[in-house]
Design goal:
It contains three helices and six strands, in the order E-E-E-E-E-E-H-H-H. Helix 1 runs parallel beside helix 3. It starts with a strand and ends in a 7-residue tail after the last helix. By secondary structure, the protein is α+β, with helices and mostly antiparallel strands. The strands form two sheets. It has a four-stranded antiparallel beta sheet with strand order 1-4-5-2, with helices on one face. Strands 3-6 form a two-stranded antiparallel sheet.
């Protein structure tokens, strides 16, 4: 049986030597993780930028009925994430952590969809691209809305609402976290 691996990197371009952090329940970001010297301050309200997304790998067979192995992990790219060191504080770090947590929510949604809808190599070939594109678009839209509604964390009331929503979503999808 001929097997081959397909590795596709996250929504964002990842360089071979980029420092990455995998999302874990017990690991929280620190300002030291924001290592990019580049600060694209398109908006004066933005204190930091979190570059995160996911990486996945698939092992599938040329036999269309053979099961696939699918792995996905949420990652934070240190070398592409930046901060305005003059304005950082713990409150803004929490806002940035939530961007990373949102990526984990959508990673879990992708795991869930793959587990429920893709049983073999043939299913992967037929359905994965559509599933991936839908979840990727939902992810991008959620991240954009999160920043817009919270005003990049400035609106503390809306930030608190999103903190609850994000925690609730992580809990609702806990069966799809990595062990």
């Amino acid at each position: 049986m001929l097997k081959f691996a397909v590795l596709i990197c996250s929504l964002f371009s990842i360089q071979a030597f980029c420092q990455k952090i995998a999302w874990r329940d017990d690991l929280k970001l620190k300002w030291e993780n924001f290592r990019s010297p580049v600060s694209r301050k398109n908006n004066a309200e933005v204190v930091a930028y979190t570059n995160c997304g996911w990486e996945y790998s698939v092992i599938k067979s040329s036999n269309p009925k053979a099961a696939i192995e699918f792995n996905i992990e949420t990652i934070f790219n240190e070398d592409k994430s930046w901060k305005d060191a003059k304005r950082i504080n713990d409150y803004y770090l929490l806002h940035e952590q939530k961007h990373f947590d949102i990526a984990e929510i959508f990673t879990r949604k992708l795991r869930k969809e793959v587990k429920e809808k893709i049983k073999n190599s043939s299913d992967f070939d037929k359905y994965f691209k559509g599933i991936y594109n839908t979840i990727s678009n939902d992810y991008r839209n959620f991240q954009i809305t999160y920043d817009k509604v919270t005003e990049h964390g400035i609106n503390k009331e809306k930030q608190a609402e999103y903190n609850e929503l994000i925690s609730s979503e992580l809990e609702n999808l806990k069966n799809f976290r990595t062990s």
